[in-house]
Design goal:
The structure is a single chain. The chain is of the alpha/beta class. It has 2 domains: 232 residues, Rossmann fold, CATH 3.40.50.300; 114 residues, HprK N-terminal domain-like (Udp-n-acetylmuramoylalanyl-d-glutamate--2,6- Diaminopimelate Ligase, Chain: A, domain 1, 3-Layer(aba) Sandwich). It is 44% helix and 21% strand. α1 crosses α14 and α10 packs parallel to α11. The protein is globular and about 65 Å long.
Length: 353
């Protein structure tokens, strides 16, 4: 039975989104779909059993019921790393092959999710390239736009994998870069034999996070308008400037959390009256009573954090770029983005479906 490996040029590139989107689309079209993630880098415990966090979540979304040791035969715990770096990891591919045989049995197609980049796991010989070769899979490599695309990397993947590379997906492309992608980079890649299966546009919702989750990730706490902590934050704006300048920027970034010092009540009030999704007050400084009252009346949550404004901004940048796909609305949106953006017919043909 055919199998497809979903890898990427780096971590947090959208592998789970593509795995779920593709898996749900194939299921909708009547195919029996298997799923595994050979190497799990996010160990957790579910129901008293060791799982990879992402693999557990994806399997549930696809409605599958396989055993954790079959879904993720290699779980990267601290003990595993100690053994692996000491040269005591053994023949891990044997276990992966056995697990793949179990998962793929009786299915029309098996979707195999990668971990990290295509080279992650090389230290114990379970990197994406080795998995693709050993299991006889076709590969799709995702490259997420982060200031630029890694087109050289994608061309190296073609040289390395040859016909096993079914194609690449360019993900999270901002509108300002779309013309360059379509006019220059896609033709360049395809001249080099790299099939571009799809270009997924940047969608603010996919990087959004709930206020309650944001507070937890920042190590802070929500102190007001608790009933609105499920509001969604798509971006952030730092309120360290003068009020007049802040108002100009704020009008252009309405769905942004405002990061501001706890002593800047002038900026806080402007942000509240402008109905920002939330205020993040830094330095562990609580707002005055006027700000707290307006927050409750306008139903805008306030989050208090200990760190300084610069540190919080850096954390926010990381959180919004790496936030996991967990909310139902984001899963639906991600699946829609995948199904509408990739050349599904070409991929099915390449897989022999």
């Amino acid at each position: 039975m055919p199998g497809i490996y979903i890898g990427s040029t780096s971590g947090f590139s959208g592998k789970n989104m593509v795995v779920m989107g593709l898996g749900l689309k194939l299921q909708k079209d009547g195919y029996n779909v298997g799923y595994m993630k050979p190497v799990g880098a996010m160990p957790t415990e579910m129901g008293g059993r060791p799982w990879d966090e992402d693999a557990y979540f994806v399997q549930n979304i696809l409605g599958l019921k396989n055993e954790p040791e079959d879904v993720t035969p290699v779980l990267v715990t601290q003990d595993f790393k100690v053994r692996a770096f000491s040269g005591q990891c053994g023949d891990l591919m044997s276990g992966i092959r056995d697990a793949y045989a179990k998962i793929s049995a009786g299915n029309d197609i098996t979707v195999v999710g990668g971990s990290g980049s295509m080279y992650s796991g090389k230290y114990c010989n379970v990197d994406g390239i080795t998995v693709v070769r050993e299991l006889g899979l076709k590969a799709v490599v995702i490259d997420r736009y982060q200031e630029e695309l890694k087109y050289d990397y994608l061309m190296v993947m073609k040289e390395t994998l040859g016909d096993a590379l079914a194609g690449v997906i360019l993900n999270d492309i901002p509108p300002s870069f779309m013309d360059e992608v379509e006019g220059m980079l896609r033709p360049c890649l395809e001249r080099a034999g790299v099939k571009v299966l799809g270009v997924i546009p940047k969608d603010p919702l996919m990087g959004a996070i709930k206020v309650s989750d944001l507070a937890e990730r920042l190590g802070g706490k929500v102190i007001s308008a608790h009933n609105k902590a499920d509001k969604v934050v798509e971006n952030f704006l730092i309120g360290t400037m003068q009020v007049e300048n802040f108002m100009t920027h704020f009008r252009k970034n309405k769905n942004s959390a405002i990061i501001v010092g706890g002593d800047r009540s002038d900026v806080q009030l402007v942000a509240l009256e402008g109905n920002c999704p939330c205020l993040v007050l830094t330095g562990n400084l609580y707002p005055n009573d006027i700000i707290l009252t307006r927050s409750e009346v306008l139903e805008v949550p306030i989050v208090i954090v200990r760190d300084d404004t610069y540190s919080v901004a850096k954390k926010m940048e990381t959180i919004l770029s790496r936030h996991k796909l967990r909310d139902v609305i984001k899963i639906r949106q991600g699946a829609q983005l995948v199904s509408s953006s990739i050349d599904y017919d070409y991929l099915k043909s390449n897989l022999g479906l």
